[in-house]
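Usage example:
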Amino acid sequence: DAGVTQSPTHLIKTRGQQVTLRCSPISGHKSVSWYQQVLGQGPQFIFQYYEKEERGRGNFPDRFSARQFPNYSSELNVNALLLGDSALYLCASSLGLDLRQGAFFGQGTRLTVV
Amino acid sequence: QKEVEQNSGPLSVPEGAIASLNCTYSDRGSQSFFWYRQYSGKSPELIMSIYSNGDKEDGRFTAQLNKASQYVSLLIRDSQPSDSATYLCAASGSARQLTFGSGTQLTVLP
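Running the assembly step on the lines above writes:
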């Protein structure tokens, strides 16, 4: 069985541009969460989606948005990129809202804003 | 601010020794706790989860939870050089999101 897949793996964008990151969860998992990890820190929660609805949002500006599709895949969009948006963006897949059975990360998308 | 704190390290142990990693959390509503291992340049990998007070063992790993003290720990027995990584502690509560510590870098010396 495939794990969590994210695309692209690496991305270089210019300040002010927009970016879309994609995630496919583990088969059978209905919840997808997005996290941002900057160097030297733990991941920070951005969004959680379950059954195509936003179920949680972290302390990130409105430039960040996301959605989940009927097949449970998800996209994270970031508009008007800033240098500070450079980070590893992680998608986590879980069976449902309850994380007791674990949340499993994809390989991440390394975004560099220049 | 709901926080998870980890001893920042870095922590070095000789091969074959026990590595002890510690974590405290501030949100008493936290119900589930996780340890992730992250190799340099890679994504976090779930290695242990614990929900009840006490110990939980899985192979060379033992997670310990004390809700009264708001304390979680991870013991790695017979440490191997391949265990060298950053270990992230995470908590989840009613918000159903993971709150991570900043990680502890572990180096196992051959």
